[in-house]
TrEMBL record:
One of its GO terms (molecular function) is magnesium ion binding. Signal peptide: none annotated. The keyword Membrane applies. Keywords: Cytoplasm, Hydrolase, Lipoprotein, Magnesium, Manganese, Membrane, Metal-binding, Myristate, Phosphoprotein, Protein phosphatase. It is a lipid-anchor. This is PPM-type phosphatase domain-containing protein. Its cofactor is Mn(2+); Mg(2+). It comes from Rhodnius prolixus (Triatomid bug). Residues 1-21 are annotated as: Disordered. It is found in: Cytoplasm, Cytosol; Membrane.
Amino acid sequence: MGTFLDKPKTEKHNEHGAGNGLRYGVSSMQGWRVEMEDAHRVRTGLGEKLDDWSFFAVFDGHAGGSVSAHCAQELLDCIVSSDEFKKEDFCLGIRTGFLKLDNILRAKPEFACGMDKAGSTAVCALVSPTQVYIANCGDSRAVICSGGRPSFSTRDHKPILPAEKERIQNAGGTVMIQRVNGSLAVSRALGDYEYKNVEGRGPCEQLVSPEPEIFIQDRSEENDEFLVLACDGIWDVMSNEDVCDYIRSLLLLTDDLEVITNQVIDTCLYKGSRDNMSIILVTFPGAPKPCPQAIAEDLALNKKLEQIVRDVLATKVDIDFVQLLGFLGDENIPGLPPGGGLSAKRSLIEAVYKDVCPQNADSVSS
């Protein structure tokens, strides 16, 4: 069975809320993995002088979920309690917070003795009234959609990036099969202390670095639509453009952000993602709003697609569900959700198939 289940666990954890002029929705799913190693943290209003700030973060664990869970609990406090952050040197404060947390975790007994070898990527956003501070460590990713397109994206920290590869080699490591020492798929992470023991080198010069890459984006009330933070289970099967286009199309249909994030995760599952999946969607005041015309068009598409499926099943009596999907994929059906495509309508297709072919209902799987 390896690291995968026989069937994906599709139950979802959801959250939603609002504050500081922002709305957010969260969805996470274990999927095909034998363990849920993702974690997240959301907080609107950081207290005292930061009550008009908000924090959003996704953590993607590997070799266990212990580090991601600790990060979700402790990273924000490590950042805002730093002297640099208190002095309003926010970028340096964020960096200090990451390095401080990595040191705190290293000293915990389970990590200090080498028993727990877990690590975690981290991507977080601190949203102030005028700016968005984004920090990334690993291959989880943040994307901002402005004016209908991705206007900003973090960079995934992969061992094959020239600067990352150089650091790894300078620390005595190698990059094989695009992994650190042929094993770890990310070049920056919290935890992973077996890759951070090269004597004479600082914490950011090790094979795996805990140092975040930090970006500052000025907010635009006119153009900013939404911010997405997600683990690589999302980005493995959808591009930045796909995710932004798909979410924009869903925002025209509903203002329920949990429904939207659930739909994104389901669509990624149907597109073939085999990883844990977590996504946070944060909408700015300029986000698209539900539109009667878009809603009517979607209902018409659903009706048309249902009829197409029924017509196919009427003429191809013995077709199984996988064959049906393949046939529909070749049909080039117009009007499918941008970025989501046929996978975005998988649940509808399943429902019609089970209705027409109830004897084959058990054969439908992700």
